[in-house]
Amino acid sequence: MGNGTSIGRVRGLGSSHQGTHHWLLSRLTAVGNLVLIPFLLVSLALMPSHDYATVHAWLSKPVPSTALVLILINTFYHARLGVQVMLEDYIHEEGGKVVAWLLVNIVPFAGAAFGIISVIRIALGGA
Amino acid sequence: MAQARSNRPLSPHLQIWRWGPAMLVSILHRVTGNGLAFAGLGLLLWWVGAIASGPESYQTFLDWVWLGTGGGLQVVTALLGKVVLVGLTWAFFQHAASGIRHLVLDIGAGYELETNARWSTLTLVFSVLATILFWAFVLLR
């Protein structure tokens, strides 16, 4: 933090004007995933079978459906942050940056929305 | 970057360094993370979407990803599906263990050369063991 103007140092937001926000959210969602994904893995492993009836019945219960909605929010946000860093490291052309910026800000939200709607439909008995 | 090449020494790149476990774990963290992001979340959406769309859609998902009942191309994709699913569980265990290592590094601990190498190696051992145990449990119980 040695460079920049005095007011810049006071605000502590750096050249990206976001400070540690990105870094902190990636840690926050990481901790969430450390709880949520093992829950999903253990649940899947303990299921007596993986046919439609069993999986559907499991996913329509309140705790699994809540967990899956949280997983969809948490993993997609975490993935968005990580993929963004990867793209920032490897894409240097201006055009590519714009495309990457569009993708990283649209696709994860669209994907998470589709997943959440699907879970809600299952949980509320729509399918 | 676009300036004329001179004879000034370049900063050493990957092939100069002797590979150590920390380097391997570092790049694996990125590879597994992006694998989980694209393949993992893609499959997760297909799975949830198929369940939400009803028994026939779910059967289609199972046929393409695991069973291969339809024959032809499905036999190939079902084999690939198994490889991808096992790969994704390994990627998750590797990314999670490596991620916990990063949380420890974030508090400023574990930077001593030996400690750093030891914990890096342990994430690799853990991810392989956890993957074997997980699939042994799922397939053999």
Brief digest:
Chain A is an all-alpha fold.
Helical amount of chain A = over 70%
Q: Quote the distance from N terminus to C terminus of chain A.
A: 54 Å
CATH homologous superfamily grouping of chain A: Fumarate reductase/succinate dehydrogenase, transmembrane subunit
Total domains of chain B, how many?
A: 1
The poorly predicted ranges of chain B are none
Which percent range describes the beta-strand content of chain A?
Answer: under 5%
Q: Spans of chain A of 5+ residues with little confidence (pLDDT < 50)?
A: none
On the 0 to 100 scale, the average pLDDT of chain B is 93
Largest interface: A-B, 34 and 30 residues
Quaternary structure: heterodimer
Beta-strand percent range of chain B: under 5%
Structure explained in plain terms:
The complex is a heterodimer of chains A (127) and B (141). Chain A has helices spanning 6-11, 21-46, 52-59, 62-90, 94-123. Chain A is an all-alpha fold. Chain A has a single domain (21-123), classed as 3 helical TM bundles of succinate and fumarate reductases, CATH 1.20.1300. Chain A is elongated, with a radius of gyration of 19 Å. By secondary structure, chain B is mostly helical. Chain B has one domain (41-140). Chain B has 4 helices and no strands. Chain B has helices at residues 21-53, 55-67, 73-106, 113-140. In chain B, helix 1 (21-53) crosses helix 3. The model of chain B has no long low-confidence stretch (mean pLDDT 93). The chains are: A mainly alpha (127), B mainly alpha (141). The A-B interface holds A 27, 30-31, 33-34, 37, 41, 44-45, 50, 52, 55-56, 59, 68, 71-72, 75-76, 79, 82-83, 86, 92, 111, 114-115, 117-119, 121-122, 126-127 and B 1, 30, 33-34, 36-37, 40-41, 44-45, 48-49, 51-55, 58-59, 62, 89, 92, 96, 99-100, 103, 106, 134, 137-138.
